[in-house]
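Researcher: For the annotation table, I need structure tokens for Glycoside hydrolase. Please keep the output clean. Sequence:
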Amino acid sequence: MKKFLSKLESKLDGGSGGGSGGGSSTSSAPAPDLGSQPSQRHMYYHRKQYGVNLGSWFTLESWLTGSLFQGAKDPKGSEMDLLHGLGPEKAKQVLESHWDNFINDGDWKWMTSQGINTVRLPISYYHFLPGSSSSKLMDGTEYEKYASVYSGAWPRIQRAIETAASHGIGVLVDLHSAPGSQNTDGHSGLSTGKAGLWDSSKHQKNTIAILQALANEVARYDNVVGLELLNEPKNNNGLQGFYEDAIKAIRKQGGPAAELPLYLGDAWDLNHYAGWVAKQAGPGNFLVVDHHLYRCFTKEDHSTQAMEHAKRLQNGGQTQKMLAGAANTLGGSLIIGEWSSALNPGSLQGQSQDEAQRAWGQAQTGSYASLLGGSFFWTLKKEGAPDGGWNLYSAIEKGVIPSGLGRPRQAPGDLDQRGNHAGSQALESHSNYWNSHGAKGDHRPFSDGFQQGWQDANLFWQQGGQNQIGFSGQWAMTRAEGWKRQGGDGGIAWEYEHGCRQAIEAFNQMLRG
């Protein structure tokens, strides 16, 4: 019977994206006692993220903040070019002024007013190391001789995290550039056009040491929702092994870093990394896949009309199916770490730019809010004329995307009554299915899990600042661990977990109307 159940378990409602006993967990994140409220840290970690990137605040991109690159050396494609052109003393002055002024208190207040609850903060190893206790890890890197330029960056990043906390905003810290460069783009710190990280075992070992140190530092903050190990890494045979080594190294340290959610860029190979990460994740190993989705760069993008891009992301279109399948495999632990409403002129085909961007942008906000654990618009602001494709201020002002990025603003008043009704229906469906497959019983664990999941979702909404649980599978695994610890039968913990996850998803569906 146990073998029979294990084969059928994943079929219930399309599977559960990991399992309470699966994965390669190397730590045991503390699960809250049953009936107890989620901690503030749990709420930050698990709530659905309606976010924006703070691009070119620390890791610079010339197309976003071109004024900083006026004195840079050609090709003016990376921060190193700026250093070569300005020299250390002038560069330090320019950069520190930029760090102090690019994002201000008005920006934080505006983000809060728009319903944004999380920011993705791209930083580079050279922003972290010089001002930290791990400065020796700069040795042997391309930026070693410029360490003094960046000695003030890390204290400012810490203040940014603290400022975000004061506004109730979470922070996803993203290692946007690693020693040697993890991809061939200038935003990885160099303009060489080479992904040198993968040609150097020394750079890879050093990057893992940097990630260990960075995880220890950022895990001290309740509002840091996670650490992204690499931004847009080049897809190669070494990436998965690098991720495995980095995860183990971070988890074995113990302490807060052991339970810090780790975000893994999928290198545009979503199916592979969704399947792999689902097997690695567990109640003590919170892992999230980050997929970046743009539709303005390839020849196919250019020749596809804006309404077709939007159609593919709605009502069972191919893009929606891709994301829904990966999200289900991962139990909701999937984000779109970068997206925009930008389109190539070839996609307009008779539409105005604003009209085309609005169709594409609003299709994205609706789909991402429904399917994923979170999404982050690229980017908050950029220099130059208003730009509804890349500038969130402009996009909301023009109505290209809605204020709040699709975040629900209201909930019905009769939440307890609705929960009881939804729980009864879910239990009936669950019981009928499993009774007809030879697993008869009262299925009380499922009912208990559903009750706990609805209660938690209600708490996230009512007492957690009108937030939803976005990472439903991970939270359900965490609750199932608590259930087992308090005497629940580990052999049927999957029923409790299924009930908890279904309740969360039913609550979120109710909010979406």
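Researcher: And a one-line annotation?
Model: The chain has two domains: 2-39+410-512, 57-397.
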